[in-house]
Amino acid sequence: QPELGKPMRNCYSLPGPDFTYGMYMHKRDGGVPEAIGHWDSVKAKPRKRVMPRDFVTMGRGAVDEGCTTAREFALYYKFMDIRLKDKQLLRYGCKIPPGMTFGMPPRPSTPFFDLMQHRYKELWMEHQRARTVVQHVVKKKIGEVRENRTTFLRTHPLPVKEESFWHPQRFEKVWAPH
């Protein structure tokens, strides 16, 4: 039974005070002084950069050889590995101009004098007034009667047709005595 107010004890016995938990590394266990004093430096190996494949040149060569199917093109690309020659290529394949700067130019600073004189409020008010005038003009145009076929025929009547005595075709060949 555990003691009152205390958790039940574990049945394992712990090792003595001289026991070290973890793994002891004989070579590098010099603590902080060794870590600060002796850095592990790795010399960089000169690595040759592999240029990307030149698919345009390979495609032209495949067409010159007479390749027509996707399989033939794939075999041609496999055996004729042509790489780009220019060494000033970016990762995405475009050349860097000599004086190029990347990024967006900064926004021009807001003139403090315009802020103090409420210039932006005045510009907004002018814009709202102009918008109201345009809306009134549009409303007036909508209020007018629109031209339709009836009003057009009232103002421009059709020419009067001469009356023709038309007969059905079956009565035209009737023999009439003279």
UniProtKB/TrEMBL annotation:
Coiled coil: none annotated. It comes from the Eukaryota. This is CFA77 protein. It comes from Cnemophilus loriae. The gene is Cfap77.
